């Protein structure tokens, strides 16, 4: 199997292949490894299905000829469809070894199984209407559809759809996973995703978000060594209460809410300290025992909210900035946060990201890196394809999928988990990575149509999995 730890852009993949070639491995050999590995995967799952392999003119099409020949030699009824003759030496060589039937794109007839080798990594513009109409016809006529490396019509690095690409049953990545395997809207087109090893060994600064390894408290720990989380409450108490409950169930040793008079605690074990005025909040946040502060959930967006945000930004403790606090900061965000000495992480969704930068993210990874560098803080751009980046350019992409998290309150829960992990002494980037993994896993354990409170109740089980 291919490296599960990182993913490669199209340029990084090209450099990794060039290094293999420079070491003495031919392009023909790499194509043989890729094609035969993919063919074996297809054969193990659906060996009895008549198969049409659509081969483009480049090396992805060359992989298709290798796949078709291997399947044919193993008893599968295979036909190749090709719009053009191969244009690379390796693809021409692969075609010369193909001993079966070949049809033009216009004459090709659908088969039970459709294998897409038209275009893979490196595509930067849309497939022409004539070719794509035949692609769609052959796709629609199949019962099972497999994409090789990437479904045709998808850009490799940004998750963009260059055509109205349909959803496949399976995608077989060759050599390394690419960003678009996990970035939306491309990710929804992949179906089941598997990888084939062809000998690629390359490091990347874009990682697949790993499962955390969390240490349990020792006999020497106490409530302050495990982390005191302070939640700054604002106009809407429910969100701050939910965040505090989450931080408590995520492993923090002590959670308190700092709020105006009349604020009630969501649980007897969560302390509410009344804040009389701004100087009082400043004094309370100067407590050296505080390990992490969170501001934003339920904060409101009025002048008082901005005043509370300014006080939190001036505090010395690590800080999570979420929800309303991001909207209040607006385009001043980078200038405000850059002044801080302590670790900071912001957790915007796409709309809040637009409030901070003036436009919605177009390239989620690179735009997040740019904001992180400008603000000198970590950024967690949340959504169904969450990206976490550090100011130094480290980046992780979440590969867990739980669409049931698309409900009110789950963002407040994510912020609470991150604050709890930050309070243990982790870097902001590491806390964001661990928090995102725990949040997604809790959603999977909660099952369908859960309430925020049900999601919070699953967090201890996710921690248990990571010990």
Written description of the protein model:
- With 467 residues, the protein is α/β, with parallel strands linked by helices.
- It has two domains: 10-204, 3-Layer(aba) Sandwich (Rossmann fold); 228-465, UDP-N-acetylmuramoyl-L-alanine:D-glutamate ligase (3-Layer(aba) Sandwich).
- Helices cover 38% and strands 16% of the residues.
- It has helices at residues 10-22, 27-46, 59-73, 89-96, 129-140, 237-249, 278-285, 303-314, 324-329, 333-338, 350-357, 364-375, 410-422, 428-446, 452-457, 459-465, and strands spanning 51-55, 78-82, 101-104, 113-117, 144-148, 170-174, 192-196, 206-208, 228-232, 254-259, 271-274, 290-295, 319-321, 344-346, 378-381, 387-389, 395-397.
- The protein has a ten-stranded mixed sheet, with helices on both faces. A seven-stranded parallel sheet has the order 3-2-1-4-5-6-7, sandwiched between helices.
- A hairpin with a 5-residue loop joins strand 16 (387-389) and strand 17 (395-397).
- It starts with 9 loop residues before the first helix and ends with a helix.
